[in-house]
What does this fold into?
Amino acid sequence: MVATFGGEYAAPGATLTILREIIERVVASSDDPNARYRVTVLNSPSINAFALPTGELYVTRGLLALANDTSELAAVMAHEVGHVTAKHAAQRAEFERQATAAMPETIADPTTAPSRFLLASFSRGQELEADEIGIRTIAKAGYDPYGAARFLVSLARQASFSGETRPAARFSFLSSHPSTPQRLSAALEIARNNVSAKSIEADRSRYLAALNGLAFGDDPSGGVIRGRRFLHPRMDFTILAPEGFTLENSSQAVIGVAGNGSQAMRLDTVRLGSIDLETSLANGWIEGAPSTDITSFSVGGFSGVTAVARGKEWVFRLAALRKGEDTFRIIFAAREMTPQLDRAFLAAIGSFRTLSPDEAQTIRPQKIMILTAGVDDSAASLAARGYLGENGIDRFMALNGLERPKLRADEVYKLVVSE
It folds into this structure.
């Protein structure tokens, strides 16, 4: 699971301190205060958090970056703890086991993508129940119960930017939650019913200070995703997935899905040594689906071979390309392979090429920098000092949970900068 989400992230000490403090307070006020939880920060830009029945809590650095105060993060952690105490996590684990068995084996290989597509398996009722449990819990712990609603608003705004919440937009627990308007309305109502003199803490300044230096966006060392395009600076290549595909990168492979799970893709690399591409493909990559109609081609100056493999429920378009000592294996899978869909798969394979100098220059590590606004600063002036790409002002406001571009002097804000 950790490897799937980019491995464990070595978060700044201040970030870990405040995260552990929040979890301790949440658990102490939960329905099972004697339970033990261990939290792991994942090196992923996706906005995601989830819990296992064993008490393992996971949160991505992307989610930490989106939250704007201790109460917002407490709401997310309490929501996940609520899934455990209400036994939702155990029910989901069984569903994941059954659903994984229905995926193409090579795409859903548990050693490379454990339950990756299936983290969104909680029911609508379970999600609303976990929301209610979480809000009651943070209010009892002394946090602002309106933190959940604030985070939902930020999440919805981030989702408006194409690819911004990848892969949470489709693969994380967030995607199966009820629609944001419904959740927001329910969260506000629950918060109103749980306000007390004790439920006041938001602690924005201390939380943001703890985020200073937190990595932001993709980790360039393992490649980056820009919409449907994957770029890898160290291995010097890029490829464009077909229309409709959403990509996720891990340390083992790039995975993609489309068509509500009826189409999938996988890209990885191997060292074949003296074995030629045709022999590798002829040996059969998919158990029970022998490769047929192997043909050779050339793209971007690299030699490759492609073939079709047919299984009981899936049809596969396979390709292998050799670049230096590395062999890139590309697998597309579809429950119903039409000529049009196969042409789209072949076009994606044909998009493989080396990076342009301009592309390579844009792939730089980014991090969160916390700064204090001056009297004359605005959302536009601070956004101009950072790296937020298109719609920089809107992204700056969404990242900081702002409804208006006017800033408060001497208030702290998050900015994304290149290292």
Summary: The longest strand covers residues 291-299. The CA atoms of residues 239 and 352 lie 5 Å apart.
